[in-house]
Amino acid sequence: MENTELHPTKARILETAARLFFEQGFHATGVSTILREAGVNSGSLYHYFPGKDELLVGVLEHYIRIMRPILMEPVEAVVEDPIGRVFKLLERYREGLVAFDFRLGCPIGNLALEVADDHAEARRLINQNFSNWIDAVRDWLAAAGDRLPARVDRRQLASFILTTMEGGIMQSRAARSLDPFDASVAQLRAYFDALQAEAAGSQTTSPSHSCSPSDSAAPTRGR
Amino acid sequence: MENTELHPTKARILETAARLFFEQGFHATGVSTILREAGVNSGSLYHYFPGKDELLVGVLEHYIRIMRPILMEPVEAVVEDPIGRVFKLLERYREGLVAFDFRLGCPIGNLALEVADDHAEARRLINQNFSNWIDAVRDWLAAAGDRLPARVDRRQLASFILTTMEGGIMQSRAARSLDPFDASVAQLRAYFDALQAEAAGSQTTSPSHSCSPSDSAAPTRGR
DNA sequence: AAGTAGATTGAACGATCAATCAACTTTCGC
DNA sequence: GCGAAAGTTGATTGATCGTTCAATCTACTT
């Protein structure tokens, strides 16, 4: 895309700021820390960004650019089944929780609750990130066709999956345990099983291939 | 409780800090702002609290104290039906979103993502708040008895309800619209309908009284 | 009435915050 | 190879950060 025409210094600032905002939050991250870790002088940063707020905007735009290539596409490459993709995506976030010892979750979710109130532009971009995430999952659900009841709004359901992810991550980070996240995903899976069972009951086409729902590995109960 | 033996100045500091941390977040709230709005001098604050971090701990303990009386008990007073209580509680959060123009959601959820990583004590108390919330809802679900399938873990389901609330609020705040929250609650309601239908199908006792699920007012679709 | 511990005052501290800017170097069109 | 634009340097700014503390006031004990 336009990544080729992105100045290396600006890219380094952006990536460093994105990481630090993710790790520590926006207000807790000092500009001096960004400068040190990016190996850049203050003048350079303010050459590319009018201020810290605009840097946040740049970071959020950065997240919009990288979401599909580093999140959706890898999932699509590994899993073919539309509904399987949904739970594969959730599994990715689960792995992230473990890999970073419950210190990191979803970068957008963090910023959403911290900076959404002020700064209209930041809120708009956070909402854009959410919307893109939902639309990608909505496309997967649409591809599931009549495996889900026709009455179910696909985008509503996709939004509910994002809800499950964000809410589950929030609790698991506080508990420093996978239990809440796994519990939420297990309930979501049970909901999907019910939806698929309902769709299988009132079906018009494709008489064979009546798949048994919930074939993937369900997360272990208890601790 | 011990509220009677709480010094008025300390109480005022606590309430002001709780409100400001809720409205602006922990890092974004300066001590000077707390002092000004509480009408207190710095020395008084540091007489009661060793530092800003311990003030946060005090605020989280404050939330633990007030959760049941200002959240659960009013719901229990208005709604008798155990499952109805669950959705009445969610409706409360919904009303809060509207009342504060999507600027405020759940105070614990905000702090969970902002300060949970550092400060072990704060994380512990955030987790305690979540746990108390879940346990209260779990008791409601337990009271629902065989209206829910026996196979469903009540506490897991309660955790999933908290997930729905937090995730829905996060999205609605970013979107400044009730749609994501309503969508999430609608999906949760559909899940509950499926669970109740399943429980009604394989029932041992109480032959009559087969209630039709989802009798309460479902949130309106669209805007 | 004297003594004392607790509560309150508010000026001041050093550290850090985001941001500035004039001087300097590099890159690039022509 | 020249001039201009773009990029970089880093010391420095004023504001604000969380915190301190000696002095003063208040309420209760003896």
Any descriptors?
223 residues, mainly alpha, Tetracycline Repressor, domain 2, 9 helices, 70% helix, DNA-binding
Number of strands of chain A: 0
CATH class category name of the domain at 52-199 in chain A: Mainly Alpha
Mean model confidence by pLDDT of chain A? 90
How many H/I helical runs of chain A?
9
Level of helix content of chain A?
Answer: 55-70%
CATH topology name of the domain at 52-199 in chain A:
Tetracycline Repressor, domain 2
Task: Provide the CATH architecture of the domain at 52-199 in chain A.
Answer: Orthogonal Bundle
CATH-level-4 superfamily name of the domain at 52-199 in chain A: Tetracycline Repressor, domain 2
Largest sheet of chain A: none
Radius of gyration of chain A: 20 Å
SS-based class of chain A: mainly alpha
**Low-confidence spans of chain A: pLDDT under 50, at least 5 residues?**
206-212, 215-223
H and E order of chain A: HHHHHHHHH
Distance between the termini of chain A: 45 Å
Shape of chain A: elongated
Q: What proportion strand of chain A?
A: under 5%
Multimerization state: homodimer
Largest interface: A-B, 50 and 50 residues
Which helices and strands appear, and what pairs or packs with what?
The structure is a homodimer of 223-residue chains.
Chain A: H1 8-24, H2 31-38, H3 42-48, H4 52-78, H5 82-99, H6 107-115, H7 120-143, H8 154-175, H9 179-201
The structure holds a DNA duplex (30 and 30 nucleotides).
What does this entry look like structurally?
The structure is a homodimer of 223-residue chains. In chain A, helix 4 (52-78) crosses helix 5. Chain A contains nine helices and no strands. Mean pLDDT of chain A is 90; it is low at 206-212 and 215-223. In chain A, 70% of the residues lie in helices and 0% in strands. The first copy, chain A, has 223 residues and is mostly helical. The first copy, chain A, has a domain at 52-199: Tetracycline Repressor, domain 2, CATH 1.10.357. The first copy, chain A, has helices at residues 8-24, 31-38, 42-48, 52-78, 82-99, 107-115, 120-143, 154-175, 179-201. The radius of gyration of chain A is 20 Å and the shape is elongated. Chain A binds a DNA duplex (30 and 30 nucleotides) through helix 3.
